[in-house]
Amino acid sequence: MNDYSPKEYWSALAESFRSADIRGLGPVRHPGAPSWFNRLIDRLQLRAVRRALALADLQPGSSILDVGCGTGRWIRRYQQLGFRATGTDATAAMLGLAREQGTLTSLVVGEASRLPFAGAKFDAVSDITVVQHIPSSLHVQVLCEMARVLRPGGRLILMEVIRGKGGHVFSRSPQDWIQQAASCGLKLIGWFGQEFLLLDRIFVRAAQAVGGKKGNSTSIPLTEVPQKSPSISRRAYWHLRHVTAPLSAWADPVVGKMCPAQLATHGVFVFRK
């Protein structure tokens, strides 16, 4: 989309979904989805981030910058885990929501392609589904900015989409993400697949086929505007997903061991500077 502006897009979501749920997930997960679905995806991501932190071998007290921190959910968790967390986001409205959610730390307005920090400042940088929403032409610049603010030996935790596409989603293959980071002087420690949700993806694909919607197994037919009176078909769709999504999430640990990581929706990468 030539007229897509990440800053304008997320500013609009922050305003539209500021009261969508008490945890602040509505504006940053799947806008327009039921709160139970966003909580489920959040739990899956938390499990993946904990695994990534173990792989990164970060010590308590390490300084960590969360790029595209949104409503501050990862900052609050990093603090609970004993890290010194700082957040930055291009959208001032998102940082306002972060403060409303009780984020008590340094929050700085700044674009990922021009981080407002000195070089070699942080022990770690986390990027949880942020670069995937920035046009592909800027990916290398953003990743190199993250590398710039890392201290030598610092870690970058990157969770980005490796399947699917959309008007504001710019995916890359796992190897492509790795090559992009390597061009910025980052060395891969390891990576794994995250969010397989196979049964749920099959159901979504079938629902899209029946409804005549173009898309892929990772897209969700949402209007991205709050709906006070969802249609009957929409209520039925989410009622059925209330079965397929939790079952899929329950099976994900086993699926992750049996299936290639490339089959997941997202890849979680840990790099060292």
Describe it.
The structure is a single chain. By secondary structure, the chain is of the alpha/beta class. The protein has one domain (6-195, 260-272): Vaccinia Virus protein VP39 (Rossmann fold, 3-Layer(aba) Sandwich), CATH 3.40.50. It has helices spanning 6-16, 35-56, 73-80, 92-100, 139-148, 174-182, 198-211, 232-258; strands at residues 63-67, 84-89, 106-109, 122-128, 150-161, 187-194, 266-272.
Task: Briefly characterize the structure.
The protein has 273 residues and is α/β, with parallel strands linked by helices.
Q: What is the count of helical runs?
A: 8
Binned strand content: 15-25%
Q: Could you name the CATH homologous superfamily?
A: Vaccinia Virus protein VP39
Overall pLDDT level: 85
**CATH topology annotation:** Rossmann fold
Gap between N and C termini, in Å? 33 Å
Q: Please compute the radius of gyration using only Cα atoms.
A: 18 Å
Level of helix content? Answer: 40-55%
Q: Could you describe the largest sheet, including whether it forms a barrel?
A: 7 strands, mixed
Counting structural domains, the number is 1
Strand order of the largest sheet: 3-2-1-4-5-7-6
Overall 3D shape: globular
- Stretches where pLDDT is under 50 for at least 5 consecutive residues are 214-227
CATH-level-2 architecture: 3-Layer(aba) Sandwich
Highest-level CATH class: Alpha Beta
